[in-house]
Amino acid sequence: MDEFVCFYCDKIGQDSFLTVSRLSLADGSPIWTNRLLRETPGKAPVVNCDFVCLDCIEEHCFKRRKEDQIRRTEIYAYLQHNYTFLERAIGCNCPKKYEQLVEERLFGDKYQKLPKLACTNGCIPVSVRASSSAHVIPLLFSPHLLWTTRDESVVDDFHGTKVADPYRWLEDPDSPECKEFVEKQNAITQPYLENFNARQHIKSRLTQLTNFPRYSCPARHGDRYYFYKNSGLQNQSVLYVQDDLFGEASEFFNPNELSEDGTVALTRTKFSEDGKTMCYSLSKSGSDWNTVHFRDTETGRDYPEVLEKVKFSPMVWSHDNKGIFYAMYPEQQGKADGSETESTMYQKLYYHRLNTRQSEDVLVVEFPDEPRYRIGARVSHCGNYLIVLPNKECKDNLVFFAEIGSLPDGPQGLLPLTQIVHKLDSDYEYVTNLGSKCIFWTNKDAPNYRLVIIDLENPSVDQWKTLVAEHPKDVLEWAVLSNKDKLFVCYIHDVTSLLQIRDLATGNLITQLPLELGNVSSVSENRKYPELFFDFSSFLTPRVIYMCDMSKPIIEPVLYRKVELKDFDASSFMTEQVFFSSKDGTKVPMFIMRKKDLKKDGSRPCLMYGYGGFNTSLLPVFSVMRLVFVQHFDGVFVCANIRGGGEYGESWHNAGRLLNKQNGLDDFQAAAEYLISEGYTSSGRLTIQGGSNGGLLVAACINQRPELFGAAIAEVGVLDLLRFHKFTVGFAWVSDYGDPDDPEHFPNLLAISPLHNVKVPSGGDGSRQYPATLLLTADHDDRVVPLHSLKFVAQLQHTLRDHPAQTNPLLIKVETKAGHGGGKPTAKWIEEHTDVLSFIGRSLNIQISSANSCSQTLRNQVCNLSLSTWTLLSLAIPPVCWNETGSMAPFFLSIFLLGLSSLATAATFTPVYESNELEFDWPSEEVKTKALQENTFNPWPVSSAVYGSRLFLSLSNNEKVPVTLVSIPTNSVSTTYPKLAPFPSWDLNSVGLRDCNKIQFAVGLEVDANGRLWVVDEGTDSCNAKLWIFNLEKNDSLELVHQFSFPYLLHDLVLDETPDGYFAYISRFYREQIVVFSLKANQSWIVETPDMQWTTIALSPKKGPTRQVYLGKQYDYELHTISAALLRNRTETATPKSIGTWTAEPYRMLMDNRGTIYTAFESKNYTSSLNTSQPFQEQPFHGFADLDFTWPFTFALDQNETLWMTVHDKNIKPKYRLLKASVGVKSYIFEASPLCSETCSQEHGVCLEVDDCRCKVGWKGENCDVCHPYPGCVNGTCDKPWECNCLPGFRGKLCNLKNE
Question: Which subcellular locations apply to this protein (predicted)?
Fold first, then answer.
């Protein structure tokens, strides 16, 4: 057997070695990845690889384990799911006969489930650990190393061509194998996305820019107006109602109340003709399935019936206001929640009478010989006709009508239909009618569309009349009737909206409305009323709403509502439209959004988006994510309007579908070549993105031209073009792709299908590779089912696993409780966009503007700055932090203003006690001598609480300290730490003595408003955990001891005073649980939180409508929240929702009565604060340079608005410190003090009463003439709110102007 030489220590041996290839992180520390799975023991090494002994693996790869939680997560995920690489370390010669065992082992200082290997031939099993003291062997994630089972026996025959489908088993989403595959992929992908150094800055910026009010156009129904509004970060928009357009609006329907996580969406509303009833549909988890409900608009109450099995359905009222026509799938079997894959067939049209059961609904239209028909329907404006519009695919429909005006009691059975259109060769949509003469929008004999008049009494084609002729270039996108006599029409002119008003009787042009380059995405009109509303947006302009009075002789749009985006200056950016030549010479339009000062040197990152299918036009649209990319990535965003879309009508669509599908792919690749040749970007800096059909576009392009792109993001893509038509509604897409079962279309589909064209890139001397690739899909996507993405990523990883040049990641993320995109809550959108930008940033190694050299230096120092130091920062800004124009660089300016805006939580700490050692107030020398002989006396604070003149500390028992709960005075004149007095006495503390009647390990402390100290006692392996309550107002008497049913792992608690008495909410380490205790009932219970473990906990202030519990996630940086009422109601399981991500893993949080959280982090030398009334924005609070300890801080707030903080370090002296700061706030337990608050708004504060927003920020008093007592506000002029912190004699935003 060959001998191996360790790369590090030159040790020579024959076993306990791994063959590895070396990689390095940016800071130079080594990481390792096994690249030689094909090798067996004893074989010679491959070039560029080294042998490393397990001892050196441990030493060099894990010396920074605690400092890098994300890297540890990546390593663990790789180990858990990819264990076959350990064959070289096992020393067993039995080839490929290993099985995985799972054991729970201590992973550093935490328990985790770890895999180990055992030979099935009976050899001695070898753990993943090299020895009892070794750490897990760290092989960092390499995407092409993932192994996935292939079933080579699955082969299809397409017209004589054999096509293998080895991943057919991934088509069953409910199989254990498929679920395991998804879990493995997510376990690899999520750490990669989270390990972007600027992820938190990106998420904060996305959250900040998303937090602006968004409105829909008002719609008049009856005598009232309805509109949607999202205040900014609400998961779902809320439907409001108002009596007049400029009156006060009230909430009418709030879908956010239907689910805690916002995954129940209000998808559609339809009001009855009299406006007295609203029909509305709800969707869960993004599925296309809907339930239909009815609400009385006067009482706000719902009718009892719920209509189910509804998908792709119209909802149209009969004009007698008695019922609606809707479509459902009555024969749908099995699941109908969005996670199924079966095709939906046999849709039927029903009539539902209001206030009756669905089982009583009347079947009015069906097509039993056409199971794939989807039935559209409209009731004519006169109410006499039901227009039926069935379609089979995604273009072309038939037209029928039935007379319903003569049915006083509504339909009683199948309606007799008269057919108008007999061939599926064109599109038709009803616009309006004058008697029997109906106006339809159609592309029949008009690729750019026209309006035609069809007389229902004489509907033959030769009798049709053109009302508005086809434009030779512009595309007629839609038309609506307004004010009974006018048509409001929208054209697409060179991929931008153009609005016209035309006469209904003649079709003649009345006026054309002035618009900038942009997009009109919605219009709100009622044929009976003169008001008409439309919206306008562009790449740089959020939605603006205009109103037109259609009754006036001269009609001009009047601004109705406009929202300004905060902290974003659009004047620094520009949008240009260019036309480039495609492969066949066709001129293709493309929008480019960028900074005005862009230098075309090819160095800028670029994000190019495309779709190119289903006659869909990509007009300018406002996107916060794209703005962040352009602003903070210094990037270029591009939207390519390739063939297959509808930008130039049906001819443009036809040029990119069916056998012409390759044209769209060529257009997209030509767009990339144009951007590179013109210096906008380079191939290594170019990311392509697309969703659904755009996902197909992206995947096909990286197959055909992998060297052209640096990264690719394919969202919910159609990636298996040979089987797409077999799942849910995929059969409808044959109109764009062709039918794989048709021998004419099969060769073309096989040639472009992403799944079937993955191959090792050729050329480039073997150095070419696929771009970094991220696939995104969701478990409830019943439009493009997830199996497309699952099979494609499996094929990618299989094909490229052994390609030496493939170092770019090939990843997939499967979202839960989400669908194709519709109804997705705001929180999920922010998280998804954060993932996308993090993937781009990490994969392309982009330094964003909030993580440049200036900010990196400052971030290491910013936590050490005292409050007064903020005012002097402008005098010490390094040159790199200023722009060429002389203005402050964006990141530094944001940090500087952040400090000025954080005065309510930032504080100047003064030392109270300092000492290098802690001393107990021993009861006797004998006890002291015995304790010090038997134990290493090195206590450190774990938690703290304060009441009156005493500070209570819980001490870690890890070092066998003689007592765990102590108190010290807070009013000593000495600066030396006083002796620790055991609380309540020595006799009630029992560290190490296993006396279950005494306190074993105090881990969480809190004092309630009645002066009682609550102590969480973790217990031991033989003593269950307990909750002790001492009455500090009654000589520290013991009031209650509650024993839990389990030992160990409790950590932190908060107290909730309710009408039913006090409740305690307690976090529990290493368990997916929250513990709840009721003092009144003296009972406790456990709330399960699947897949979520918690370290620390906080509670929102006492004053407020609903209290929220905030939870710090274990092994993660996320902050979650959940309703306290939900925990009190004894729910068995709960799913706290994520609201943001800290910069590190929190271990202790404290909330004040203004809603600010103070947070300490594991192994970090700084603390942070968070204003929970604002979008998530972590702010520096206080810190120390070179502090080195696992849990260095504890917090406590007293009733006198003083914050107490303990600091502990194992090296730096003094090792023990107690600090205090006057912060102007109390504990969350007490009412908020009636002082001005910055949380009321950006312009007004709180004066006299908490909810009185009369004073400007920085002022209080009856006349708002007293400076707000921020910490340090005794200085400065208070002429401006931020000047409360200026030094004497200075003013201005930077406090650098002298007072006159």
Answer: Membrane; Secreted
